[in-house]
Amino acid sequence: MIAKRLNRLRAAAAAALLASLGAAAPAQAASGADLLKSQCIACHAVSKPEAASKERLLSRKGPDLHYAGVKFNKDWLVSWLQNPTVLRPAGVAYSHVVKAGEGGVADTVDASKLTPHPKLAAAEAAAVADALMALGTGDELVAKGAFKNDPPNASMAGLLFNKLRGCASCHSAKPGAGGVSGPELYSAGDRLQPDFVVEYIRNPQKFDPHVWMPKLDLNDGDVQKLTGYLMTLKQGGAK
Ligand code: HEC
Ligand code: HEC
User: For residue 174, what is the DSSP state?
Assistant: First the structure.
């Protein structure tokens, strides 16, 4: 009888000890990979989705991050994760957020459908950025050196972007101007790696077969010029 009660007490004490150890664990710096798993995968794909489909794309809660290591500049990640700004004015699934205009009235964005991005503390942001920079680097989605870095002819490239190739109907090269259905590009030079931009403009469907940016019939000269132009857009965009 007494022995039984003692055993029960011991088990309770052991459980309490285990629980206190468990509660203490998060105080130690969690690894970036652990943070990705615990705080990010509810909204982001951090590994290549097994089955790409239009339904998956439309029901995503956040953009895909499985090729983050070949897409982003690490410094930008570290600072954005601490102070996130709006990148896609109409969210990840444009059609869910935009009210179609009727009778010649332009479409409007229902901003109440967008929620602010979670913010990370500096140490977490640095750890997560490290983990993100390891994603997709072995996938061969983006060829190193795809961007030739010929000095861009800024006015010609601006014309291509804004007028000739229609990029500005979906993207903004300057806050408050241009389209809203695609991510803003006025911070492209801070945010994105040039080789990624070349490959994305060449063939957006390489990154997801259902993505709705059209594959535009551009020659390599135009792709290089457009990328050179986008790389000049930093903190606030086209002058
Ligand atoms: C509740 C859903 C949600 C959670 C949780 C979340 N995100 Fe996001 N994330 C989003 C959305 C929505 C966007 C798009 C924001 C925009 O375009 O303005 C986004 C954008 C991003 C971007 C920019 C992607 C791009 O292609 O432009 C990065 C990087 C990012 N998130 C990282 C993270 C990390 C790291 C975590 C975990 C610490 C995380 N997110 C947690 C929803 C989420
Ligand atoms: C019909 C609308 C549309 C047009 C036209 C369009 N895009 Fe896009 N673009 C998008 C959308 C939507 C995405 C984001 C896809 C996603 O992440 O799901 C995108 C993504 C991008 C990206 C990657 C940026 C990022 O943060 O993920 C770049 C770079 C880009 N577009 C450049 C261009 C250029 C240059 C042109 C003109 C030659 C152009 N786009 C024309 C809709 C468009």
Answer: B
**Could you give the CA distance from residue 226 to residue 231 in angstroms, rounded to a whole number?**
9
Ligand 2: nearest atom to the Cα of 226:
35
Q: Which ligand is nearest to the CA of 192?
A: 2
Contact 166, 211 (CB under 8 A): no
- The DSSP bridge partners found for residue 72 are 192
Q: Which domains does the chain have, with CATH numbers?
A: 142-239 (1.10.760.10)
Q: How far is the CA of 114 from the centre of ligand 2 (A)?
A: 20
Segment 17-67, tens digit of pLDDT: 555 555 544 445 579 999 999 999 999 999 999 988 999 998 899 999 999
Distance CA 209, CA 203 (A): 10
Pairwise CA distance, residues 168 & 159, whole Å: 10
- Ligand 1 shell residues, CB under 6 Å: 35, 39-40, 42-44, 61-63, 65, 77, 81, 86-88, 92, 117-118, 120, 128, 183
